[in-house]
Amino acid sequence: MLSRDCTIATSLTHLDPHATQSGGTRNRYYSIMSVTGEEGLQSVPEVDKISFSQEELKVLELWKKIDVFQTCLKQSKGRPRFTFYDGPPFATGLPHYGHILAGTIKDVVTRWAHQTGHHVERRFGWDTHGLPVEYEIDKTHNINGPEDVAKMGIKKYNELCRGIVMRYADEWETIVSRLGRWIDFKNDYKTLYPWYMESIWWVFSQLYEKGLIYRGFKVMPFSTACSTPLSNFEAGQNYKDTQDPSVVVTFPLVEESEAALVAWTTTPWTLPSNLALCVNPEMDYVRVKGKTKERNGTYILMEARLVQLFKSEADYDVLAKYKGKQLEGIRYTPLFNYFKEKEKDGAFRVLCDGYVTSESGTGVVHQAPYFGEDDFRVCLAYGIISRDANAICPVDNAGRFMPSVVDFKGLHVKVADPEIIKNLRTRGRLVISDTINHSYPYCWRSDTPLIYRAVPSWFVRVQQMQDKLLACNDKTYWVPSFVKEKRFANWLRDARDWAISRNRYWGTPIPLWVSEDFTEVVCIGSIAELEKLSGQKVTDLHRDNIDHITIPSAREGMPPLRRISEVFDCWFESGSMPYAQVHYPFENKREFDDCFPADFIAEGIDQTRGWFYTLLVISTALYGKPPFKNLVANGLVLAEDGQKMSKRKKNYPDPMAIVEKYGADALRLYLANSPSVRGENLRFKESDVFNLLKEVFIPWLNAYRFFVQQVKRYQKVEGEVFSFDESVMGQSVNVMDQWILSFTQSLLNFVHQEMAVYHLYTVTPRLIKFVDNLTNWYLRFNRKRLKGDSGKEDCLRALETLYSVLLSLVRVMAPFTPFITETMYQNLKRVLKPGALGKGDNGSVHYLYVPQPMEKLICQEIEDCVSILQSVVELGRYLRDKVNSPVKSPLPEVVVIHKDQKILDDVLRLESYIKEELNVKTVTVSTDKKMYGVALKADMNFKVLGARLKGDVKKVQQKVGELTDEEIQKMLNSGSIDILGHTIDSCDLNVRYSFSGEKAAELSSKYEAHADNTVLILLDIKPSQEMLEEGLAREVTNRVQKLRKQAKLVPTDEVTVWYNVEKNSELARIVTSHSDYIENSIKTPFKPITEKDGSPVLIEEEFKIKDSTLMLTITKGFCQGWPSGVTSGQMSGSEGVNCPWVNIILDGSPRLGVNSCIATLLLENPLGNVVVTSCKQVMEEARTLFGFPQDHAKLYMERKPVDTTIPVSSLTGKTLVITCAQNKVPIGTSAIKPYCKYVNVEGHGKKGCVVLENPCGNGIMTRHAFTHLNLMDQQYMYDMQVVKVHAEATFVSKAPRDGAVTSHQP
């Protein structure tokens, strides 16, 4: 089997992620694309000399040379368009595995679209504005707030941002291209381009005209590190478990100072801004008197939350109880007097609202209306604050207390927490001070805790569009569907108005020019409009270029309108990319209208609250329809330990190091075959990439290499050029050819169907499984045919079949693994007949369409038949492994049991393959497993069920033991069974096969049983002594072949193998008795070391077999007397041969399953009856024996060509040599006796001869067969064909030890 070749394990050692790598071993892996102009298939070096990564670089050079991507786009002009939107990444960092995963999915789908007849424009985009860029500048230049930017100047600040925005652009292009992704970097789009920004202005102006834009004062997530508000979906992107203060403070009643309301908070920094308390009007509240040293005051709190203050009921006395509604309006003493003036507006009172719950805290919630969304809403409803009044928001944009909070001014709110707690403790207002671990939102850019803060912002009215958003979402198709139906739909149902303004500098300015009192507002939708209204020329739209521009007021005598200071949220910019990337509507209007919405987009699942959301909101607002038709949302890529990948922790390998070691194809296929393509998270393991290389790419490459080798052999031996035309497909009658062709067409059918619905997660496993079927099944079963052993025509059919499969696989895999498929195709196309792939350019595999399935080649019956074969073989291999019985040791029998006779007929149809693969002598089938006394039995798994069943353990155990075969089978099919009221899963029981009946002991010692969902097999594991000995003989043969390979010998090299084994050992006896079998298997002399001549030693090695030492020595050349190997007349005594004869030597490789190159022909039989009349007939008979090709075959005697006109009788007793290769000098040899064993016969006055083996060493006729020939009763009908047919009908095959094949020549 190619993929199990022993060279692979050693050749891959330097790629093993756990192996030590020396400097000199890297990049020696493969080089299979020659740059020579040689015609025909080019040779493929051994796998262990190949470097996938280095070969991929050669493919990149080829693509560059032929400008393959642009050529593809030119070729596809005029085809139906397939529109793809690429979400723009930031170029302030290098690509990580998340980018590579999404990029791979995008590349596979767009390549597939191109290769199925579409024109696919692929433009790369860059997100160049916003916090990621500004945060880098702030860190580098120690900018801590707006005042620092003001000192520097916006122009200088933006210049710094522009300077780093494309810092890693070159690296991005290099890495993306190296990964094989085709996307246009030259025709890219950047959100900083003025034409892109102009389209964003147009989008905003359309929303403004529709009344969807408003300015509001709203509590929002706020990043103090970035000095800007964030949208709710941004705040939801980065939650972390963190530790915060947990405090309970008192609010004494104004009219009853001895009693106090108590409130709980985890944000002590909001307490200086407290303006009210809130309770639930429907809940029960109590006034209690504390009885402990720590809690001895009088407190008012929710009855259900007494546990927040007291450990037990003994710690307090209940003084009163009332509903929360009764507390409404009660005044309390504020914690601080910073905003005492708000008391006249109704501050420092108890309010009521249903948002207060009994799940945490005290049931009394402190209200700081400008730092909490619910606080703002409730206080606004009670009139304590108003939208027009000055905000009680004493925290600046950098998160520091302003001077109005005199005790803590200048402190960052998080730094102020402990100081505030200390202040409250000193003043006796602190009841409890503790800490709490909880999940808290962090800034997605700066990774610092967010606060909630009321800020004036510009909003898109999303809430009023909820129904339209859900309707548009319903029109889209998502993979996986649950992301659309659950996660995304739920987000849309709870969607809030979208804050699109940011108090920042480097971004697209919001195009609103307003009067100082905001009564006059002008929304600009284009550069031309701004130039017209302002009278100034505009070339760039960034703040430093337009902030100074004014627009005259429409009101006479009023100051000109100035632009508001805010810029757009960068998510608004990326959500506008469908329009802005083509400068819509200012250019490409018709082109955009024809291609909107997009056919396909893909990003990570985290974009459900990011890009996917903003795309949908803007598209729905503009056109009332979704912006895309199909979406693939991939899961996240985590480190191997399940944690987030972190540069600081260094818990993941560098992506480009993986590419350098294993190649981009291996990484692509690993990611495309991972759980991530179905929306689940992937724990990245380098070892899994290596395993994929070892288990898929190496076997695949080996299959391709083997094909090339056999085509070259075929062309050399047959003297014919191999070329492929698809019209020949389906002509083979070989069942394995029919199976692999059918399986290939079924694969194409499946892949087309599944790719149409974007199911990469079903396609990639099927493609990988196909490689396994090709290499581990088809090639394994057909190696001899492909090598020509079954004759020219059958070999050609097998080669054509394999070529068709390889070419189809290369074409269907091209979108997934673009490098190795290109490499193989560049060689495979050399033997395609002109026009086989159509009239177009076929210079690259990526120019070709993915082949459509040929329905006429699909035969489900054959696929099912081979599937049964695979089940039987795999079950048999499992049982051999279980009992530690290697396949080289023959076993007596395998029994296949199934109730369906058709399935058993399929088994018998492929009986020979089963015998060969499992190395069994007999295949038996049966529909009755009771006949063999085999049935399923179950035992209880106590570790799993013991604790769960408790007192019922013994009863359930008894019932489990009583389960019948049918009941157990039903349980396995359904997955569970109900026993005494307990649901027992099938995995909770240990299920096994056992034997019953009178012969149970005998059967259980003889057979091992195993089954899958298809068949049950019994494997006879008791080999006979004869089989054990045959197994050892095969082991010796295996050691010889490995030693030959180690010496780098090829089958045609003339060598002799000498053996030395411990005398009187069992191995010595077996080697001696099976020497003929070993000799026939290795096709070279196998002699005891005592007979060794002085030939040069090529290699020798000592082995340990069955506790005996075997020394093997290989010397150059055949030993003396070879190829005769035996003396004639062993069965006929010392007399000579009755009939004239001639020896034949084939100076080449035999076929037709023949192992020997030497034979003997009888020229007369019986004596006087001429059966070979000419030299031409000698050649014909020899060809019948050896199966060599007729072209270029020549007959030699003593190294001189034989004159074919001479009488054949003149050749009697001579040795003739046949060569097949052109211009080959034949070997020179002679012999005085026939090479083959024979027996003389006499009767009815005539003499004849029976050749007992032909070719020599191909098996001796058994005595049984010989005695039943009845030669003398056949009235000497020694016509060659008659005797040949009779011999083939009566000679029986035996084990090699006593003679194993029929004779082809009498």
From TrEMBL:
Biological-process GO terms, alphabetical: isoleucyl-tRNA aminoacylation
Instruction: Extract one GO molecular function annotation from the record.
Output: tRNA binding
Q: In this protein, which residues make up the domain named Isoleucine--tRNA ligase cytoplasmic ubiquitin-like?
A: 1138-1220
Which reactions does this protein catalyse?
A: tRNA(Ile) + L-isoleucine + ATP = L-isoleucyl-tRNA(Ile) + AMP + diphosphate
Keywords, alphabetical:
Acetylation, Aminoacyl-tRNA synthetase, ATP-binding, Cytoplasm, Ligase, Nucleotide-binding, Phosphoprotein, Protein biosynthesis
Give the enzyme class: ligase
Domain Methionyl/Valyl/Leucyl/Isoleucyl-tRNA synthetase anticodon-binding intervals: 737-892
Q: Tell me yes or no: is ATP-binding among this UniProt entry's keywords.
A: yes
Any idea where this protein resides?
Cytoplasm, Cytosol
- List each copy of the Aminoacyl-tRNA synthetase class Ia domain by range: 59-682
Gene3D superfamilies to which the protein is assigned, alphabetical:
HUPs, Isoleucyl-tRNA Synthetase, Domain 1, Valyl/Leucyl/Isoleucyl-tRNA synthetase, editing domain
InterPro entries of this UniProt entry? aa-tRNA-synth_I_CS, aa-tRNA-synth_Ia, Anticodon_Ile_ABEc, Ile-tRNA-ligase, Ile-tRNA-ligase_type2, M/V/L/I-tRNA-synth_anticd-bd, Rossmann-like_a/b/a_fold, tRNAsynth_Ia_anticodon-bd
Instruction: Output the Gene Ontology cellular-component terms.
Output: aminoacyl-tRNA synthetase multienzyme complex; cytosol
User: What EC number(s) would the UniProt record show?
Assistant: 6.1.1.5
- Identify its protein family: Belongs to the class-I aminoacyl-tRNA synthetase family.
As for what it does, the entry says: Catalyzes the specific attachment of an amino acid to its cognate tRNA in a 2 step reaction: the amino acid (AA) is first activated by ATP to form AA-AMP and then transferred to the acceptor end of the tRNA.
Protein name, entry field: Isoleucine--tRNA ligase, cytoplasmic
